[in-house]
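ingest -> validate -> predict -> emit
validate: passed (alphabet ok, no gaps, 324 aa)
predict: started
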Amino acid sequence: MKPTLVTGATGFIGWHVARKLLARGHAVRALVRPASKVRELEVEEVTGDLRDRGSLERAVAGCGLVFHVAADYRLWAKAPGELYRSNVDGTRNLLSAARDAGVERVVYTSTVGCIGIPEDRPGSEELEVHLEEMTGAYKRSKFQAEQVALEFAAAGLPVVIVNPTAPIGDHDFKPTPTGKIVVDYLKGGMPAFVDTGLNLVDVADTAEGHLLAGEHGRSGERYILGCENLTLQQILVRLAELSGGKAPRWRIPYGVAYAAGLASTGWANLTGHEPRAPLDAVKMARKKMFVSVDKAKRELGFNPGPVEGALKRAIDWFRTNGYV
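emit:
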């Protein structure tokens, strides 16, 4: 069996994708940066960087399947150009290397942020959306990277795109913005909430959706990998029930949140320290990211379970590993 390459296996979704592949008997190769290491999994590590085409050629050599999960996932960066170099240029570099190496299929991990969200119904893959609608450097860079993936698919490289929503669960090392909600809540740092909403999904189901996309997805198509549409208040209530804490009852007006984000991000731009409330995150929160996963269920056989178990695993993992 040819090895399967996973980029981003040192991160949250990529780690779970690699674990699923190993459980199914795949020989997994992981692209890792020089200072990184894949934890708790027995994989072949290849040192490299998405911005280094030569390292990518070495990583894809002999591989039959590639899961491109890695991304620069930050809602604030002092130098936003870094996100474009990793997310856009890096995707082009990897897909070029995969094409030249004769890779049989690529699953590219995009984001639900690239899905159009209408006012009157959940978003879906079919709704047209444009770059001008993307908020912040992260979303814009991922939108442009998705266009790169579609270009390669149109040119003949079998590329399937998945758009995960907000995954939750164990082994959220960084943690991701979704995991940070859990950590901040457990630390008592969320006395109030804004009126926003997310689609939560168990990260293990997200990983399973990646494998299903590799098996059944159509090249050039996008598939939303999500589960439950929940307001932030509903998420905090569930966290309270599962952790034995109290759910905040006070809602912060958007104008107050915007002012806090403006001040926090302005200070971060001066100091170089990550803002507690990135302005781009506040802007994104104005829209509830509610979506439909019908296409993934219909075409991939995607069948996500309830998110309570994933929330509980996240709580336990963050507590056990010293995050709170």
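The mean pLDDT is 94.
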